[in-house]
## 1
Amino acid sequence: MQTIAGPTGPLARAAKVKTRMGGSTGETGSALWLMVPALAIYAVFTLFPVAVTFWLSFTNSAGFNTPAEFTGLDNYARAVHDPIVWQALGHTFLWLLYHLVLAGGLGLALALAIGSLGKTRTFFRTAFFLPHLVSLAVVGVIWANIYDPFFGLINTGLIGLGLGNWTQGWLSDPSLVLFSVNVASSWQGFGIYMLLFIAGLQNIDSSLYDAASVDGATPFQKLVHVTLPGLREVMTFVVSLALINGLKGFATVFVMTNGGPFYRSELITTYIYRLAFQSQDHGLAAVLCIVLSLLAITITVVFTRWRARLAQ
Amino acid sequence: MTARNREWPVALALAPVMLVLLAPFAWLIMSSLKTEAEIAQAAPFSWPANLMWRNYADAWQIGGFGDLVGNSLLNLAGVVALTLITCVPAGYALAKIRFPGREWLFYAFILGLTIPIQAIVIPLYEVLSGLRLVNTLTGIVLAQVSNGIPFGIFLMRSFFISVPDELVEAAKIDGATHFQILTKVFLPISSPAIQALVIISALSTWNDFFLPLIVLISPDVQTLPLGLVRFAGTYSSEYRLVFSGTVISFLPIILLYILTQRRFTEGLTQGAIKG
């Protein structure tokens, strides 16, 4: 666990790699042999596709394995003028925010409660983690049924409680749909954030609590002055993880609404899939791929720097 | 950390929260044992008159869940094995050997750690179809392993870095090669890191949806999440089948977790932090 205290992200470590390079040829040879299996697969199935995606964004490619011509920035101009691109981008930001608040917030709240437990700690930690084990695609099937207007758990439950006028078309109402689907994703996601916060709590020096008690601090003061500052680094880690997980969000939307109704739950990822595999507009899809990658890289760099600064 | 006299108030406050958050599981399992008519009554927590275990037999047979589970297991075994074969030696080389270009490799792997899989899907599909790997187990395994390689390498690397260099130097003086040092000196002490890597790659493979959706087109090669989505789409009006099929899809992994929860939890937490 000690690594959590340091700048842990690979980017932060990259700065340190620059130390003494080189080495004898024998060393280089054996390093190469040990790297070859990973490098061969990674080069073919990841690095090469990254490069080709970049190239495709400057072409008029309109289908798999078909010849394409260089068209400069045409696709970028088309992307700027495509209203669905802007919608998908807006939805993606909203999606990240929902996920951060719902899954991150729930994870933190539960961790704070579970962290104060003794005998029943393992029981609650295990129970609350269960949703995270379910595949997001299966979560999509589960929640599509939970939201079913006639037989679903939520609407039938509300009627059962005498709250019949609270029932909604959770997935058919354009203003609700993105939030509804995000609840499903966040239900699956909060467990891992909770585990990370619990691990962070265990790293806080218990003598700080003793000192606070001696000073007559209330439980609330301990939370604000000891616990939350002690969780700062885990917090930045969880926030960046939640943002990256949010960016990758795809399966629940694909399964529950396929981006609808009227593109009102379309994310960048689902729009990429639609452009790539349905309308086969690979030039425009590639532009969105670049945008998605840049967002992910920005989040990673910003948070790695922030964490490195906290660690100093 | 805090006084134990807070145990029971907190536990009592958490219990209703737990009931709400786990209600979907309870509701699905109960509904999966009802008849279509009972489901149509829309009484979410009414007890079924007769437990319809038949729903499970029907869903299993109609949905071809035997094949789906088999495919998922093969997929998982392939990914875990190949992940270990690729990431353990590469992590060692990046941690313990100085060689020119190491820095560049490092950045190349960070790139893959950061970029979402959806962002490279078009050329990835072209590569797979060029190699005639679409619709094959080999294809899905290679794509998933490649996607997980950066994480696996950084996880193993950060573990190997924490092993003192003196162990390497001493073994070298005895005339050991790096391969021998890795297998004879490092592997025997690496089980925490390897366990974390196995758990994380197994769970993410078992639950993966995006890559199977792209690569595995015909039903006979599909894995469990993809197969369930197809099944739920085809039989969307037969709720008893959808419910029991869904339970079949999540129950095994949940039981496995409950049985091994300590290792599972440790592996996931350590892995997430170090990777």
## 2
Amino acid sequence: MFKIILTIIFISCPSISLSGKFSLDKFNIEINSNFLGEEVFLFGQKDEGRDLIIIFEGTEKQGKLFKKSKKGLFWINDRKDLDKIPSFFAIFSTPKKSINEIFLIPSITRSHFLIQSSYSEKLYQIREALRVKGLYFEDELQSVEESLFIKKFKIPDNISAGNIKVYLYEIKDNEVINFSQKKLNIQKKGLTSKFETMLEEQSLVYAIFLVVFSIVFSLISNWLFKRR
Amino acid sequence: MNFYLPIAEISINIYVLLSLGVGIGFISGLFGIGGGFISSPLLILVGVPPAVAVGSTTVQVFASTSTGVINHYQKKNIDYQMGITMIIGGVFGTLTGVLFLNNLQNIGAIDNYLSSIYVVLLLGTAIFILYETAKVNIFYKNKKFKLHQHSWIHGLPFKFKYRKSKLYISILAPLFIGFGIGLLTGFTGIGGGFILIPCMIYLLGMTTISVIGTSLFNITIISLISLFLQIAINQNVDFVLAIMLIISSSLGAAIASRVIEKLDQENLKVLFGVLLIIIASFLLYELFRTPNNLYRIDYV
């Protein structure tokens, strides 16, 4: 059934480029006022005897990592400033390779900050913090018959705008023998985008706009509700 | 049905948000308060980031008090001398509060500090309301009280004549009260009317006629200043969230104005006190319980 669906998708969607051996059902996601996160459908083909590792890595941003620890009665946050944290990170593999196995492939770990060959408590904490926000996944690609795979996952509503790079590694005997890359573009659109840009770049205009709106809205609401 | 809040960067159920707004407006309407000290903690409890809850509540406070100021301006119930003195203190307080919030946000301690302050404010107000209700109805039934008695405040230097309120007191007292309320507004987003009004009556000795108008005048201007500072320094005001709160709380306030005459005021006060204790209990639980997640990332 899946094979038929995938074959139909491959044939009927010439816009979906299939360079390498995987694709996504969409390459652009728009964040607008109705955005509640978006399901992405990853699918492709794999050669027999080879494993696949597909990594989604979002734009790197500055951030702060907080770790809660109990001091007396309170839970206090310890802070670490970080220069580059991906806005999103997902690792899918077939058959499921544990993260530790992927760590053993240096050509992959060299290219991705969040997965390093040596164990790092800090990286573990970052992954856990991202996982809590729904911004980090480790999962298995679902095999369909022998050579096709699919995976459906959700880009959460707290995703930041920017490109998510999608890397496909073909693995044989723990060596990368083939590599391809695509981009999933996340962009803020419409009113949502305008508000955020205005707040960042023209905060005075944003404030004035908000003040005028709140006065007008409260006057209208008062007038409406008082008359009924 | 969920709705995306662009600055909070979360989606929230629109019915939860609207119910919250209506509830806050209803309580505000019943008790004549701005509702900020209820809306901030409730927004945090439903998952809005604390800094955004504070910033957006400031807008709601501004909106809910600004129309009241217009009414009191028309009725000439505002003591501008007193209001401006408190606003001068309030400007410094607000700036301190907003910078303090910014600092706490940077060190990641905002949730603990904010929740602790809300717990103190909510429990303090609840105890005060319940005590006052009990005092009037149980302890000293049918006895008359003096609203204002002379205290050490009236011995402070730099005295000034406030003509509208017929007071001759030190400007230091309203300046400090204004500073305190501004600090509270900048740090927690609340208007602080429930603290300001008792201070004006019991500490300064103002007449009740001009107290409401003057406090609304002070809260409106201070929340306006706080709003600008929050946007400039913390960038934590969510337009969509603020507008939703304004509209829904207006509806709640309108419902309250219809039912208020049918309700027993003393029972309402007790109910309000109990409600505050319930909200404070939830915050206390959140403050001390073992967190589900030990790690958190905030992007800059």
